Amino acid sequence: MKKIALVTGATSGIGEACARKLAENGYNVIITGRRADRLDAIAAELRTVGAQVLALAFDVRDREAATAAIEGLPDEWREIDVLVNNAGGAWGLEPEYEGNYEDWDTMIDTNIKGLLTMTRLIVPGMVERDRGHVVNIGSVAGDAAYGGGNVYCATKSAVKALSDGLRIDVAHTKVRVTNIKPGLVETNFSVTRFHGDKERADGVYKGIKPLTGKDIAESVYYAVSAPEHVQVAEILILATHQASGSVIFRK
Ligand code: NDP
Ligand code: 8X3
Prior knowledge:
The chain has eight helices and seven strands; from the N terminus they run E-H-E-H-E-H-E-H-E-H-E-H-H-H-E. The radius of gyration is 17 Å and the shape is globular. The longest helix is centred in the middle third of the chain and has 29 residues. It is α/β, with parallel strands linked by helices. Strands 3-2-1-4-5-6-7 form a seven-stranded parallel beta sheet, sandwiched between helices. It has a single domain, classed as 3-Layer(aba) Sandwich (Rossmann fold). The N and C termini lie far apart (about 50 Å). 2-hydroxyethylsulfonic acid binds next to loops.
């Protein structure tokens, strides 16, 4: 029987690449995100590689909707083996003393509370079955703050703490927890950060070859396909000319 993976934020970037990598490698996948049309298009594509795909459109900030989606899963989709908590992003790059309240709430509600809600809904089944893997998409931004990163960096530090905390809380089971911490990945991330300013977003990747969603999906797959006794706790994955969240060499 094929394993089941649920990927949040599978409509774009890293999440979409993870869903594709898992589908290509023998998983049936539940793909989630807010944009139903994107989910439908990606589901159709993933089915061509032989995977069964279930698309669930909901906002991870909406606990009622998330609960209804998970509690309403058809029987054959209930035993989730891999949860990739990926949905999230950065909104704004202002100094902390000038930040936008709405952006702060969006980041905290999505990157921390959304991830927690999905964990709370799915991990009890993993504990009961004594098997499963939670992959949280953290960031190099969670290791150290950079200028303007303030709240985003804090949410990714929280992802590290929540990953470490969960790993402790499931240590008596075979459930594994991995925190993947990417550096610069060219996705829709910077367009979101700059509220749709594509030109400014493109500038983030000028003079450096950034990572791709596929690069990150490879590391997610490495972690989930490790032997049962091996728990990949963290992976920090940077572009070659990037040394940290704030040290980037550009040509
Ligand atoms: P994208 O903007 O390309 O993708 C973000 C994904 O998150 C989309 O699928 C979006 O789907 C989903 N999403 C956002 N808000 C919500 C929500 N409220 N409810 C449900 N889904 C939501 O960016 P990335 O692929 O780069 O980002 C994915 C993750 O990787 C994020 O957690 C980000 O912080 C992290 N990351 C990114 C890095 C980068 O440089 N790109 C580096 C390190 C970490 P939809 O709009 O359909 O809801
Ligand atoms: C995304 C990577 O360095 O732009 O988390 O914050 S960074």
